Each structure stands twice: as C-alpha cells, then as structure tokens.
Amino acid sequence: MKLKVVSRIxxxxxxxxxxxxxxxxxxxxxxxxxxEINSGYAEINPMLSPDGKTLYFTRVNHPENRFGxxxxxxxxxxxxxPDGTWSEAKRLPNSINIGRYNAIFGxxxxxxxxxxxxxxxxxxxxxxxxxxxxxxxxxxxxxxxxRQLNVKGFTRMNKGLxxxxxxxPDGKYLLTSFSKRAGGRNHSIYLSVKEGDGYSKxxxxxxxxxxxxxxxxxxxLSKDGNALFFSCKVDGNNNIYMANRTDDTYLNWSAPTxxxxxxxxxGWENYYRLNAKESWAYYCSSNSKKEHSEIMRVKIYxxxxxxxxxxxxxxxxxxxxxxxxxGYNILVNGKKSDSLKIDxxxxxxxxLIPFGKKHSLLPELANWVGIPDTLDLTAVKEYSxxxxxxxxxxxxxxxxxxxxxNTRTGLPINPEMKYQILVNGAASDSVKYETEIAKYSxxxxxxxxxxxxxxxxxxxxxxxxxxxxxxxxYTEKQVDFYATTVPWVEVNGVALDNSTxxxxxxxxxxxxKINGSTADSVSIDPVxxxxxxxxxxxxxxxxxxxxxDYNPLDNQLDLTGYVEFTKVxxxxxxxxxxxxxxxxxxxxxNLKTGQPLEKEVPVKLKVNGTETRGFIYDSTSASYTLKLPxxxxxxxxxxVKNFYNKYEQVDLTKVKKGTKIAKNxxxxxxxxxQSVNIDFIYFDVxxxxxxxxxxxxxxxxxxxxNEYPNVIxxxxxxxxxxxxxxVNQRLSDAxxxxxxxxxxxxxxxxxRITSKxxxxxxxxxxxxxxxxxxENRRVEFTIVGI
Length: 786
What we know:
Layout: E1 31-32, E2 42-48, E3 54-60, E4 73-79, E5 90-91, E6 104-107, E7 113-120, E8 127-136, E9 147-149, H1 154-157, E10 164-167, E11 173-178, E12 188-195, E13 198-199, E14 203-204, E15 206-207, E16 215-221, E17 227-234, E18 237-244, E19 252-253, E20 257-258, E21 268-274, E22 280-286, E23 294-299, E24 306-315, E25 320-321, E26 329-332, E27 335-336, E28 341-343, E29 348-354, E30 358-364, E31 368-370, E32 373-376, E33 384-387, E34 390-394, E35 397-402, E36 404-406, E37 420-423, E38 426-427, E39 432-434, E40 439-445, E41 449-455, E42 459-460, E43 464-467, E44 475-478, E45 481-485, E46 488-497, E47 511-514, E48 517-518, E49 530-536, E50 540-546, E51 550-552, E52 555-558, E53 567-576, E54 581-590, E55 595-596, E56 604-607, E57 610-611, E58 616-618, E59 623-629, E60 633-639, E61 643-645, E62 648-651, E63 660-662, E64 665-669, E65 675-677, H2 695-707, E66 712-718, H3 725-745, E67 753-757, H4 770-776, E68 778-785
Parallel strand pairs: 15-19, 24-33, 24-34, 35-44, 36-45, 46-53, 54-63, 54-64, 66-67
Antiparallel strand pairs: 1-23, 2-3, 3-4, 4-5, 6-7, 7-8, 8-9, 10-11, 11-12, 12-13, 12-14, 16-17, 17-18, 18-20, 21-22, 22-23, 24-25, 24-29, 26-27, 26-30, 28-29, 30-32, 31-34, 35-40, 37-38, 37-41, 39-40, 41-43, 42-45, 46-49, 47-48, 47-50, 50-52, 51-53, 54-55, 54-59, 56-57, 56-60, 58-59, 60-62, ...
C-alpha cells in the first residue's frame, strides 16, 4: 500500500444504499473535492450525513489533530453552502476525537446517532481497546459520551494492523474487514447480524472464489443490499470492486468486477461510498506520486435529469419577435408542459425537458402555423442548459363568418333550415354551420376575391364580396346575409273521399279547384291523392275537388295569419256521386297466438300508403269496419307499433256496391324466431326472376325494415315436393336470394339481410293436394336478430 499513514486503522461505517442503475459503467468524470477539504495531508474515510449537507472524513497527521503530526487520525467535517460548494473543513471537538485513530463508521437514519472507532472509558475521556462505540450528536458543537457497541468476539478476533467496517441503514447488518493474525496486513470481510442490543459473532463473507487479491477492505453495501463494494489489494495496489449477492444470508457473493477506469487508476483507490440517493459516489484516491490520499466524487446518475431550454418565439415571415398580446403556447411531444414559462413582453420562454431521448417542439397559436423542431437529447446525461428559437408562420387564410338574418323578424335563421352559403356560385366544403349559435363560418386562401351568396329556398338575399387579393396575413371578415321570404305558402294537400277518408284515385280524374277556378297546373297523385300548390299568404281560399265520380265540396283554407313562407297541410274532401261502397269487416289477428290482437292495443290502417279515418276499430274485440269504393284495387296495411304489419291487397274491381266482405288483417310481434309469409310476390314457373307486380308487397317489407333498423331477417325460400329435390332446392335458394337482393337494392344494409333455400324440407301443409302444394310454394322472412 502506498499510504503508510493509513496502515494503522482504516475503519468505515455507513447507513446508505444502492440502486441497480449504479451498476452500469459510467462515463462521468471523477472530480477532486476542493481545497476546503483536500489539504496537503491525507484525507480518508468520507462519510455523508443522510441529508447530504455535511461531509465527515478523517484527516491524517494534521498539526491541529489531537496528537498532532505524530501518527494521528482525527475526524473533520465540512458543510454544503447554498451555492453547492463546501465550506472550509473544521475539526470535530475532543469529545468525539478521543483516541489517536478516530473515525466515524456510520450515521444512522436519524442523522444524530454516530458509530465511531474504539472502546472508551465511562467518562468518555480515554480510549481503552479496539471496538465500536455509539455517540449522539446533541447539537452543532456538542456531543454525548460514547457507549460501547457489543459485537461478539470482535475485539478478540481483530488483531491486524487495520480495520474497516460498514453498518446498513437499519442497523441490521454489520460488515467488518480485519485480520485475525497479530499485526496482519491482509484482511477479509466479515458479517455480523443484529441480535438484541448487539451483533452476532463475525462470519467470513465469501466473494467469488476468494482469489482476487491479498486484502479486502472498506466494505460498503448498496441500499437494496444486492451490491457489495470494497477495495482490494491486487498485485500490491488497491482498487475498488463490486460483487452481487447470491443468497439471502449475505455471506455469499458473486465473482467481483472492477469499477471502470474513470474511478480505478494505476494508483490507490479506497473507501467507496454513495450518497443517500445513490447519485454520487465519494471515494479516496492517490493516483500520482504524492504520498497522501484525496477525496474524490463521481456522478453515478443525474438527480435532476433535465435540460433547461430557453429561447425566443419568432414570427418567421418577418424574423421578428412575436407581439406581447399574442397568446401562443409551446407543445413538447404534442402536449403542454407544466414546466413552461413564457415572458410575452420579451417573447422568450423557458422549459425543463427530460434528457436521454429525442423531443418534438411545436409552438402553437390560433390562426398561425407552428414550425416543428426537434431537440435530440439522447446523448445528454447531465443537467445542462441550451438555447433554441422557435418560429410561428402566419396562416395565409381569411376566416369569414356571420349569420343569416330574417328581414321580417330581425332574428338569425338557424342552419337547420338547410341553407347554403355559396362561394363564387358553388357550394364549398370549407363552410361550417353551427346550429347551436345559428352561425356559419369558413376559411379561404388569401390572394383572391370571393363573391358570397345565400341559397335558401323560398328566401331572397343580396350577394356580398370579400376581397383579400392583396392580404398577406390571416384576417377575419364578418358577412351577414339578410334574407326576405317569398310571398307564398306551400300547401301540401290530399284529395279524400268524405265517407271513407281514403284518397280519391286517379281513375276518378280528380282536379283541384281554387276559389272556383280549376288549377290545371296542379297534379294530383293517382294513388295517394296528394298534391302541392303555392298560394300567396295573407288571404282566404276555398278549395274543392272536381271529378267525374265525385261532387265537389267547399273546403276552407285560411292563410291570413301567415306572414312568411311556410308549409301547411290541407285535406280537400269530395262526395262520391253514386256512393258505390263495399263494406269490409273482420279482426286484427296476432299471428303468433292465432287470436285477435290483445285489448287496448291501438290499431290504425293505411290504404294506398295513407292513413285513413274511415277505419273504425274496436280495441276491446279487435274488430273493425271499413268502407271502400268499389271498382278499385287497394294496398292495405294495418299499423300497430312493435309489430310486423302484414301487407294485403284488396281487389274491389269486380265487386258490386253494398257487398259485405269478411277480411282479417294480420300482425306479428317483433321477436326473434317469428316467421311471416311474404304474400303477393310472383315468379315465372321454374324461375327466380321477380315479376313487377311483386314490388308492392316487397316495398311494405322494406318500409317495415326502415321503421325498425335494429331488426335482422333471413329470407327463406320453400317449394312443394313436385319434381327433382335438387332442382327444388336450387330454385328455392335462387328465389330467396332474388327477394333479398331486391330489399338490399332498396337501401337496406347487407348485414341485416340473409337468404337461404329450404326446398321442400319445411312444408306448411300436405303436398297431397293442390291447395297444400300451393301453400308450400312460398317465400317467408324470419326475424333472426333485434
């Protein structure tokens, strides 16, 4: 060993830990502590207080030591200044520097209980023998009297020239390094475990195969107890090594590994210690020809792993500072950072950004484009400060916004009325409509002249112009449109039989009369009886139906209360000349039960797609009566909520007036598993092509599927047993698919419709009769999902 002065006694004790992050080799450069600590004398055994604010160490043969320069070791200390430097070191009082070889072995978690070298007299004035003692720090300058720490057999076993020791933070494990031979220089490391108020007899620790070197000194245990650091004399020189714990006894450790060459030098290294956070290591080194040791420290990891980034926020277009009244922000990796500080007066910012990876930076400001930037901190390992200017580019757009105002009321017209703002005569995807606040807005490129106009049916307004041909920066323009209603009302009417309340069919050649004049330009639908006509508001009208089969009746239409365009409904009744009526009666049947529909279930009826008031229904008996003019074929559909209403065709083309017809209507509850025949669909014999007369029935099924969009159905095709089973199977499948294809073509999503052919496998009646075979030749649908 180079240092003869430390050959007397080298003892260390610490309560500190070690994390796995320290195991990796570090490129941080060791630093020699300042002259306030390292003097012209040897400094050894550095020991940090738990809070890291006081560094204790042993200074060798200093003239101020209790025994002066004559082979003495006293404990000195230094405190951390607010600026991070250390104060001038001072010697501790004689109440702790009692013997010739003084050292602090460790500081307990409370920060006031210290372990020191030696056993002392009860009054604490004289050293008596080798051992360990506990001493309390009362205040900055006052210490209590030392008390012996009982370690079984330690005093008797320890016979060598030097000793080192280490206690874990909780005081559970005590590691000592000494020689059992009198005057021995080669040490081994021993473990004692806390037992009551003392410690067990030291047991030798096995490190690898034990063949590393001659002497194992200054043991230090990591915080998690998994790493053991020590100094070992190899080939006559000491370097620092580390071993990993291999079991729970703390007696067996892996083969040691030397710390990297930034710490270990060709010289002498010893007393490796870590601070409480294990971010810094303190150790002693003599890597030159000097005959004294100096205290070093090396960073293991950065406690504050950030880069402080500062810079200016600039207008890229003008290379100028952003104005103080602009509310810009800065995103780091797409998110706002809690560390961001912005001084808008100077357009400067400050950020703390974690190092070790790449970061994206993006200034953001409404109506400006932030220019993204990258900060590569993958190679940075220590806190540092950098500067980077960030840029915003003005958006070359104009934002146009406004309202559409009704000139009569002075109030905004809501976009729910489906108006459009046209740009240069065409609809633009850039226009956004906000129904909640009755506004519109759009963004358009600068450098053009735009003509804006309003497209709102039945209203008129003037165009407006926004000229941004010479604009350079983002701007906003408000353009309100003033809309004036057209001076009429749209009348949505229907021509009805006043007895049956059913539409007057086209075969009766109905014409609309207004105030006694025939409105030849108004077309009445030949099936539904519906018509549309525009009439100036603010007046009263008399309407009537002129027809070869009906006598006109006067119907009043009062539009005096209307002051702007709207749509009104109007029913125009006429009286059939000959009253040629057939009377239908029967029940509404629940196909699931085969019984009349349950009481109190409301039922309505549509004739040719229009709900008729001529349908008289008794809900207690589920019976009805209905009068219909003869000579016409009708599409009839009951209307019951949450039921499938089965379509029927009622052909009165050959029925005489006054005929009474018994006719039941059928409904099926919307439940999974319910099947219903699709009647009135027609195919050519042996083929799967739908005939046009099938579409009326299929359209009723499409209407049902549109009304209940959660219903999923299977279309099933069936045949009788006549002919080849293979042909029948193929035909049934093709017919089911043909029906499914039609329904999908009418807008029902594919995922709600499936089809399958069953051939003759599911007959409803006997195939022995023609009637039974006709019933079995069918297409039906089954509800398979809701």
